[in-house]
Each structure stands twice: as structure tokens, then as C-alpha cells.
């Protein structure tokens, strides 16, 4: 109610025109209806009837309602301005959120590409390590084969030396037998 009172103070003051203020040659529509209402309310004796009083109250009430409606329309205008401001605020907030979402999407794309690069790098490293592992296994196998061959070579040289010794002994025995048989 206080907002109605404060708004009514802001409105320009209205002064009531008397009938003599309006020019007689061209009365306005509202002046004509005002005069007709006054003339119809009073009868020839100057005494108002209860129905006239009721219609006067009704028209006063109607005018008051119209006045209050116009005041509430100004409130509605200000309320709609508030809604408009709220709507604009919501739009700006939505735009900010959209830009943040777009930034987040770009950052996500960057991070995914970095993750892909790191994954590919790790794959290459794991491939290298698997190649390295296979090379390492091959090297170990070759080293084992070399050590086995070295062992065989040692055995072979021992066998050769044994074979040579046996040949020498055989030759000596043949000489001894040939001397004994002569």
C-alpha cells in the first residue's frame, strides 16, 4: 500500500475543472458526459433519490477502480521491467555459462589430444621395450648357445688330445709288437 501512496505522489497533480473553465462552443466528450451525469442525478426539485445516490456511488466507485487500475498498470509496467531485467540477467548468465562450457570443451579436447600423444608415446616405448625384451631374450639365447659351444669345444679339444695320445700309444705298441715279432 505504501508503494501505491508513493507512486501517487510521483504522478502529476490533477486539478478539477469547473464547468465554467471549459469553452461553451466546443465542450469535450468527458465534459459532456459529466454534465449529463449531473443533470440526470438531480431532478427538478433538487432532491436526489436513493437510486441516484447509488448510481453516483457506483460511478465514483468505478472511477476509483479505474484510477487504481491505472496505478496498478504502472506497477505492472515496473514489474514487467523487473521481469525484463531478470530475463536479461538470466540471458547474460546463460551466455557466460555457454562461454565457460565452450572453454571447457576446448580444454577437454586439448587434454584428450595430449592424452592420445602420451598414450602413443607409451605404446612406442612399450613396443621398444617389447622389442628390447625380445632382443634381450635373443641375446641371452645366443650367449647360452655360445657358452654351450665353448663347452663342446673344450670337450672336443680334450677328445682330440685323447685321440692323439691314443694314436701315439697305438703307434708305440705297433713298434713294440713289430720288434717282438722279428
TrEMBL record:
PANTHER family: PROTEIN PHOSPHATASE 1 REGULATORY SUBUNIT 12 (PTHR24179), PROTEIN PHOSPHATASE 1 REGULATORY SUBUNIT 12B (PTHR24179:SF18). InterPro entries: PP1_Regulatory_Subunit (IPR051226), PRKG1_interact (IPR031775). This is cGMP-dependent protein kinase interacting domain-containing protein. It comes from Cyprinus carpio (Common carp). Residues 62-81 have a biased composition (Basic and acidic residues). GO terms for cellular component: A band; Z disc. Pfam families: PRKG1_interact (PF15898). Keywords: ANK repeat, Repeat. Residues 82-182 form the cGMP-dependent protein kinase interacting domain. Residues 1-81 are annotated as: Disordered. GO terms for molecular function: enzyme inhibitor activity; phosphatase regulator activity; protein kinase binding. The lineage of its organism: Eukaryota, Metazoa, Chordata, Craniata, Vertebrata.
Amino acid at each position: 500500500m505504501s508503494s501505491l501512496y508513493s507512486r501517487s505522489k510521483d504522478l502529476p497533480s490533477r486539478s478539477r475543472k469547473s464547468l465554467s473553465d471549459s469553452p461553451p462552443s466546443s465542450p469535450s466528450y468527458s465534459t459532456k458526459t459529466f454534465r449529463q451525469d449531473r443533470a440526470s442525478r438531480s431532478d427538478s426539485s433538487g432532491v436526489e433519490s436513493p437510486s441516484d445516490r447509488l448510481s453516483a456511488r457506483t460511478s465514483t466507485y468505478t472511477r476509483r477502480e479505474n484510477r487504481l487500475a491505472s496505478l496498478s498498470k504502472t506497477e505492472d509496467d515496473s514489474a514487467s521491467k523487473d521481469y525484463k531485467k531478470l530475463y536479461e540477467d538470466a540471458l547474460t548468465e546463460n551466455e557466460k555459462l555457454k562461454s565457460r562450457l565452450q572453454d571447457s570443451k576446448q580444454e577437454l579436447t586439448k587434454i584428450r589430444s595430449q592424452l592420445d600423444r602420451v598414450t602413443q608415446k607409451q605404446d612406442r616405448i612399450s613396443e621398444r621395450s617389447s622389442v628390447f625384451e625380445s632382443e634381450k631374450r635373443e641375446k641371452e639365447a645366443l650367449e647360452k648357445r655360445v657358452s654351450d659351444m665353448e663347452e663342446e669345444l673344450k670337450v672336443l679339444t680334450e677328445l682330440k688330445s685323447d685321440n692323439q695320445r691314443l694314436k701315439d700309444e697305438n703307434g708305440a705298441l705297433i713298434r713294440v709288437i713289430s720288434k717282438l715279432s722279428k
